Amino acid sequence: MKLFNKLFLVFIGSLLLLSTLDSAAQCKRFTKKYCLPSLAPYIHNGQLTSTYMIQGDSAEVLMTFNAGKEYRILICSQEMIGNVQFKVLDKKKKVLYTSEEDDVNPFWDFKVTNTQQLFIHITIPEKEKTTKMTEMVAQGCVSLLVGFKE
Q1: How far, in Å, are 9, 13, 147 from residue 120 at the CA level?
Q2: Residue extents of the structural domains in the chain
Q3: Of 15, 48, 117, 150, which residue is least crowded by CB atoms under 10 Å?
Q4: 3-state SS, residue 116
Q5: What is the pLDDT of residues 72-130, one digit of tens each?
Q6: 52-76 b/e with 16+ CB inside 10 Å = b?
Q7: How far is C-alpha 102 from the chain's CA centre?
């Protein structure tokens, strides 16, 4: 019986790992198909920063931007989680840019005079409060893309 329990746990663990890997692959496919074209005319920096998030989530990413380049930061997300917002902050946490609440796939174009690291803070809107206890929170792919002009 102990052997059966161990095999069962290994089987369940394998299923969870495979479903996680499949979700990540689906998010990457979404990013490549629907988000990358929105960077044009900027050249993608080669990093795919994407993950599944739920309503009410937030995340922060620190990225380096090189002097003398013009950049586009683009946040692209699946429709079911609502309009994702983002802020760009410097190392001292001074806000440099904030997207509008009603922007769909918001982006910011800017030029960097000095090489610097910036925080990109992504926020998924909270789910509207309802009286239904059975209503599920939406989950969707959110991608942070950076492009540059030479």
Answers
A1: 39, 34, 14
A2: 2-149
A3: 150
A4: strand
A5: 999 999 988 888 999 999 999 999 999 998 888 899 999 999 999 999 999 998 877 65
A6: bbebebeeeeebebeeeeebbbbbb
A7: 17
